[in-house]
């Protein structure tokens, strides 16, 4: 089978927040492609992470693509502020958007790539009328809100469904898989159709995070 090299997006949520600059530099000096930044508002998800000032500081030193995953209600209120804070990709949750098409146009109009995230219970068919406009589909493989959870097995089928929709619509969207990705399941996630792997705990709890990023990238 053809070897596919995925893009790797370490999630800063699992970093040591007392030494956040050190961890960003570790990612800068690794084979990671994107830096995944999880924003939680305590409303859309039952947790609060970090917000605009932290992202503005981190993107000043990040040399990777800054991939911001918004787990917030009313993302349209903050899209411009995230663009100014240095987001290169802005992903909103379909479950949080009443006017998704408008939200996507807004993100692109601000000069960012636009992504849509699906919670585990959300069906892929909901993307049918928006897929052609997307740069990224983020498939949640855990319920959003926390790092360190177990990968939901049904996600493999969901990735295949998203891939089929992309192929049939002629969309150029990439598929990013987020939650519980490990060295053990990453091969199967890629084989199902993922282009980008988010990894939080797998990277930051590794003895050698740089080596773990390399291993995830070349494991397919
Ligand atoms: O969006 C989220 C969680 O809601 C993720 O990006 C996690 O931060 C991934 O962490 P791990 O599951 O890889 O530890
Ligand atoms: Fe995320």
TrEMBL record:
<comment type="pathway">
    <text>Carbohydrate degradation.</text>
</comment>
<protein>
    <recommendedName>
        <fullName>Ribulose-phosphate 3-epimerase</fullName>
        <ecNumber>5.1.3.1</ecNumber>
    </recommendedName>
</protein>
<keyword id="KW-0119">Carbohydrate metabolism</keyword>
<feature type="binding site">
    <location>
        <position position="69"/>
    </location>
    <ligand>
        <name>a divalent metal cation</name>
    </ligand>
</feature>
<comment type="function">
    <text>Catalyzes the reversible epimerization of D-ribulose 5-phosphate to D-xylulose 5-phosphate.</text>
</comment>
<dbReference type="GO" id="GO:0005737">
    <property type="term" value="C:cytoplasm"/>
</dbReference>
<feature type="binding site">
    <location>
        <begin position="145"/>
        <end position="148"/>
    </location>
    <ligand>
        <name>substrate</name>
    </ligand>
</feature>
<feature type="binding site">
    <location>
        <position position="180"/>
    </location>
    <ligand>
        <name>substrate</name>
    </ligand>
</feature>
<feature type="active site" description="Proton donor">
    <location>
        <position position="178"/>
    </location>
</feature>
<dbReference type="GO" id="GO:0004750">
    <property type="term" value="F:D-ribulose-phosphate 3-epimerase activity"/>
</dbReference>
<dbReference type="InterPro" id="IPR026019">
    <property type="entry name" value="Ribul_P_3_epim"/>
</dbReference>
<keyword id="KW-0479">Metal-binding</keyword>
<keyword id="KW-0413">Isomerase</keyword>
<dbReference type="InterPro" id="IPR011060">
    <property type="entry name" value="RibuloseP-bd_barrel"/>
</dbReference>
<dbReference type="GO" id="GO:0006098">
    <property type="term" value="P:pentose-phosphate shunt"/>
</dbReference>
<dbReference type="GO" id="GO:0019323">
    <property type="term" value="P:pentose catabolic process"/>
</dbReference>
<dbReference type="GO" id="GO:0046872">
    <property type="term" value="F:metal ion binding"/>
</dbReference>
<feature type="binding site">
    <location>
        <position position="69"/>
    </location>
    <ligand>
        <name>substrate</name>
    </ligand>
</feature>
<comment type="similarity">
    <text>Belongs to the ribulose-phosphate 3-epimerase family.</text>
</comment>
<feature type="binding site">
    <location>
        <position position="36"/>
    </location>
    <ligand>
        <name>a divalent metal cation</name>
    </ligand>
</feature>
<feature type="active site" description="Proton acceptor">
    <location>
        <position position="38"/>
    </location>
</feature>
<dbReference type="InterPro" id="IPR000056">
    <property type="entry name" value="Ribul_P_3_epim-like"/>
</dbReference>
<dbReference type="Pfam" id="PF00834">
    <property type="entry name" value="Ribul_P_3_epim"/>
</dbReference>
<keyword id="KW-0464">Manganese</keyword>
<feature type="binding site">
    <location>
        <position position="38"/>
    </location>
    <ligand>
        <name>a divalent metal cation</name>
    </ligand>
</feature>
<dbReference type="InterPro" id="IPR013785">
    <property type="entry name" value="Aldolase_TIM"/>
</dbReference>
<keyword id="KW-0170">Cobalt</keyword>
<keyword id="KW-0862">Zinc</keyword>
<feature type="binding site">
    <location>
        <position position="178"/>
    </location>
    <ligand>
        <name>a divalent metal cation</name>
    </ligand>
</feature>
<feature type="binding site">
    <location>
        <begin position="178"/>
        <end position="180"/>
    </location>
    <ligand>
        <name>substrate</name>
    </ligand>
</feature>
<feature type="binding site">
    <location>
        <position position="11"/>
    </location>
    <ligand>
        <name>substrate</name>
    </ligand>
</feature>
């Amino acid at each position: 089978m053809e070897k596919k090299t995925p893009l790797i997006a370490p999630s800063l949520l699992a970093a040591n927040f007392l030494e956040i600059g050190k961890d960003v530099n570790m990612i800068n000096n690794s084979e990671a492609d994107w830096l995944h930044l999880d924003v939680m508002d305590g409303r859309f998800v039952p947790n609060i992470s970090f917000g605009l000032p932290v992202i503005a500081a981190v993107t000043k030193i990040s040399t990777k693509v800054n991939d911001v995953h918004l787990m917030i209600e009313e993302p349209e209120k903050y899209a411009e502020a995230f663009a100014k804070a240095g987001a290169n990709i802005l992903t909103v949750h379909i479950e949080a958007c009443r006017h998704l098409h408008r939200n996507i146009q807004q993100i692109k109009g601000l000069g960012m790539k636009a992504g849509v995230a699906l919670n585990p219970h959300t069906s892929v068919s909901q993307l049918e009328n928006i897929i052609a406009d997307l740069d990224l589909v983020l498939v949640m493989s855990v319920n959003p809100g926390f790092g360190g959870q177990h990968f939901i097995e049904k996600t493999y089928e969901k990735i295949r469904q998203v891939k089929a929709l992309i192929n049939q619509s002629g969309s150029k969207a990439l598929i990013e898989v987020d939650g519980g990705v490990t060295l053990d399941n990453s091969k199967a996630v890629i084989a199902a159709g993922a282009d980008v792997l988010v990894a939080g705990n797998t990277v930051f709890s590794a003895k050698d995070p740089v080596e773990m990023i390399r291993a995830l990238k070349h494991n397919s």
